[in-house]
Amino acid sequence: MEFNKEEEYKLSLLRSMPKQKLGPVKQKEILHQLRLASRENTRILDYSGLFKKLAIAIAMCFIVFIPVLLFMSQNPTKPTHTTKPLQTEQWKVSPTFDLLDRDGSLVYKNRVRGIKGKIGFLDTEFIAKDPRAGSKMFWYVWGDYDKLANKTLKATAIHEGTGEKFVVNETELQGPIYGADASTLTSFKPFPKKGLWKMNISIDGKPYGSIVVNVKAPYIATKNAEFYLTEDDVKVGLNSDVILEVKGERKESKIIVKAALITDESHILSFPYYQDASFYNVTGNTITHFTGDLIFDTPGKWKITVLGESTVVNVKK
């Protein structure tokens, strides 16, 4: 049997060992085992080579992608959606000013709110969710008459805290009045919540100015009755001659309004309200007005009950 040099060398080593001499069959068996061992070593070497190749590939990936990642970090892509920007400016309620006639005489003293010499409206108290507050509004505009007359005025209101937006008014400007170059009589949609609202105004599709207004909390109300008093204005000892509006035509000449302190149910106040008249409101429904006091002696939360219906109000000092 012929052996290669490596096998001959291994046999010579075996022959030199002080062991009992092996026969050819035994020698073949040992050589077979040595060959198997050699193959295992080769596999181990092959695995180590594979690991080396894998390490090189990983290194190449780092070389290729690290510059890409650095570029992306320095040049971030813009998000596909828009988010609400953080409020950085402090909104302030726009001031009021006098409305003068063309001869300089005073028409309204400090009654127009807006931008003096440019645009404003006859001021009113805005109450959230109340359609009556803006049911009759006058716009006054100063500028080039030819660029104002018969043009569309659009006012879009934005809430300071939430960013909620809606079109509060859209109308057509008419001719001059008093000292203004254009004007119009219109109505505003109710503001849906309390807080500061900025009205961005455009005329003929072009920005014309912004007016910030404060909207008070809704009137204190039950399902069928409503006080002409907002929770913003409820304070200890200050609420006299408050109008109470009740739905429908009421026959009672007097009703009793009760108020109970939430933290002490035994602390109860009673207020008599006397009927004034029944008439139709702006929506065409019949209502009845009563007048009385709503004077609280302690700050805190109170439960107010009118004609069997209740609501809770927070009374301030």
Describe, in plain words, how this protein is organized in 3D.
The chain has helices at residues 5-16, 24-74, 145-148; strands at residues 96-100, 106-115, 119-122, 126-127, 137-141, 152-159, 165-172, 182-186, 195-203, 206-216, 219-221, 225-230, 242-247, 254-261, 264-280, 286-292, 300-306, 309-315. It has three helices and 18 strands. It is α+β, with helices and mostly antiparallel strands and 317 residues long. The protein folds into three domains: 20-54; 96-216, Immunoglobulin-like (Sandwich); 220-315, Immunoglobulin-like (Sandwich), CATH 2.60.40. Residues 37-48, 61-73 and 76-86 have low confidence and may be disordered. 21% of the residues lie in helices and 40% in strands. The longest helix has 51 residues, at 24-74.
Quick summary of this structure?
By secondary structure, the protein is α+β, with helices and mostly antiparallel strands.
Keywords:
single chain, 317 residues, alpha+beta, Immunoglobulin-like, 21% helix
Draw up the topology in text.
Blueprint: H1 5-16, H2 24-74, E1 96-100, E2 106-115, E3 119-122, E4 126-127, E5 137-141, H3 145-148, E6 152-159, E7 165-172, E8 182-186, E9 195-203, E10 206-216, E11 219-221, E12 225-230, E13 242-247, E14 254-261, E15 264-280, E16 286-292, E17 300-306, E18 309-315
Parallel strand pairs: 4-10
Antiparallel strand pairs: 1-2, 2-3, 3-5, 5-8, 6-7, 6-9, 9-10, 11-12, 12-13, 13-16, 14-15, 14-17, 15-16, 17-18
